[in-house]
Amino acid sequence: xxxHRIGYTPCQDCGGTGTKPDEMPCTTCEGTGLVxxxxxxxxxxxxxxxxxxxxxxxxHHTDLLIKVRNQQGENLVGRCVVIAEGGLGAILRHPIPKGxxxxxxxxxxxxxxxxxxxxxxxxxxGLRHGFRFVSLADAERLAIRQFCNRLMVQSDDGRVDS
Length: 162
Fold this sequence. Notes:
Layout: E1 2-10, E2 34-42, E3 60-69, E4 75-84, E5 87-92, E6 101-106, E7 115-125, E8 128-135, H1 138-157
Antiparallel strand pairs: 1-2, 3-4, 3-6, 4-5, 5-8, 6-7, 7-8
């Protein structure tokens, strides 16, 4: 049975800092300082995010570690919570203003290496960000498409592949 993710809270193991006292990244939150909060268990996988008719690609819930390099060269760590072929949604520890150009790094399970993509912050509400991909190599676009298709199949049949 799967549980429905309802949000994030600071990691208790590292106090929300993302690092342990020995300065090593926290293994509980993978260095983000945030952990997922779930509600009651559910039978089916989270369905695709409801998309308006203006959207080119369907969006899907996910939970992946993401690194974002902003225009000042700072590396921010967070969680990718929504993904589509045209972009993704993430929760970061610090806000990035709308319109900013960034470099995203995310490990897509259907791709052998870390995906790197230039993106623009399309929206930002608190720590929630929406990114639109600016440039993707064909292999990266295919990896995202395969991952989204896998998420769609999982939500349709109610099971999650290992």
